[in-house]
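Researcher: I'm preparing a figure for a lab meeting and need a structural model of a single chain. I don't have an experimental structure, so a prediction will have to do for now. The sequence is pasted below. Please return the structure as tokens so I can convert it later.
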Amino acid sequence: QVQLVESGGGLVQPGGSLRLSCAASGSIFSIYSMGWYRQVPGQQRELVAQITSGGTISYANFVKGRFTISRDNAKNTAYLQMNDLKPEDTAVYYCNANRWRPVGRTDYWGQGTQVTVSS
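Model: Understood. Here is the structure written out token by token.
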């Protein structure tokens, strides 16, 4: 069982930056892959970035070169540094923790934090 709480969202102008944080509790943080997803109302949730328990990082094409995912296992926290934000980045951003076990994949989700990019 993992509880996830996102923070750091807000209103920013195009070209600006934000850093999202995801604080985890309730289990051993280091064994989970951590991801950031985003969702616009009426659309499907989409993967933004993921960092595995081993440190392997992947990004969606639409954020490569602008966003950076990281984790600090000592603080049980994952981060998403977002630079050069664009209006189309506006969405609710969700933190995800997942792991594979013999029974299959298990996913946990935070409640989300709103990011709005507007002039």
